[in-house]
């Protein structure tokens, strides 16, 4: 019946034409119906007599010539809400109909979706731009232009990503380096077909989270989300955590070559790591020979805590520094023995004994040690 159906077997072709949702008919030169599928019946295109067309369609076809070379016509039946593509082949006419109402409905739905999408773009709190498979600009919102501070002449449908990136690179927002190299690298990343996330810091101090996601048309959509405040809060939180860590692990140089770290409260894995890091850092910076770890303020010493202490002692020894654990009470000593944990470093019952040991190791005059205690 057409080139599109060439190669189909007769039964396949018949099933295809019969079940099509669009009306399909074939009529002879006298406008008698040779074939009409279910949709043609459903749309009322057939007359009351066998082999007859409805009056409106018969009248519309009356003026169309039949015979000669293949000819194509377009025909519309307003009353039926149908448009036909008519092919005159030899002594017959093939009619392929389309529901204009469905087309108009699809168009209306598309226009409504376009209006909704445009509203989303306008009111989105982030910059959005869509590019096609050739990295040409398709759509963008006002926030996108505001974020990147782009001039109007760069924002043209069909404009290239490379031109936009070059403008930004020359301004310095991509960092130092050859602008052409920076642009090439940027374009390669955005057009890689992968979801890519990066950060962009622009003049004025704002930082944006940039996410490029591939789209169904082979292009990609880029979003710019302002994370300046989030970055500031994160930096503040990290600073606070650092202060808390320093307060919970206050390593103090009590004498040239002697460091002291009093531990108070509970000791978990994170705090144990903080203690070790603080101790090793101070030992490295001060070249200390004695590190006193006072645990008189530790609430509970169990297997986990005892193992942490042993690890700290071994780590300081590797740095060439002797670790002295002070504040070991009778209960703590009994617990360590019962747990079967071997503590190779020196232990003392009080901080004073640990400091005295340190002074003796360093050859410091006892009077100096006494002066230190009275301060």
N-to-C SSE series?
Answer: HEEHHEEEHEEHHHEEEHEEHEHEHEHH
- The overall pLDDT, averaged over residues, is 81
**What sort of overall outline do the alpha carbons produce when their principal axes are compared?**
elongated
Rg result: 42 Å
Work out the helicity level: 40-55%
**Shape-level CATH architecture of the largest domain:** 2-Layer Sandwich
Question: Number of helix segments?
Answer: 13
Main β sheet profile:
5 strands, antiparallel
Please state how the strands of the largest beta sheet are arranged side by side: 2-1-5-4-3
Strand residue percentage = 15-25%
Please describe what this structure looks like:
It is built from 13 helices and 15 strands. The protein is α+β, with helices and mostly antiparallel strands. It folds into three domains: 3-102, PAS domain (Beta-Lactamase, 2-Layer Sandwich); 124-226, Beta-Lactamase, CATH 3.30.450; 249-373, STAS domain (Transcription Regulator spoIIAA, 2-Layer Sandwich), CATH 3.30.750.24. The strands form three sheets. It has a five-stranded antiparallel sheet. It has a five-stranded antiparallel sheet with strand order 7-6-10-9-8. Strands 11-12-13-14-15 form a five-stranded mixed sheet, with helices on both faces. A hairpin with a 4-residue loop joins strand 3 and strand 4. Helix 6 packs across helix 7 (179-190) and helix 9 packs parallel to helix 10 (303-318). Mean pLDDT is 81; it is low at 2-8.
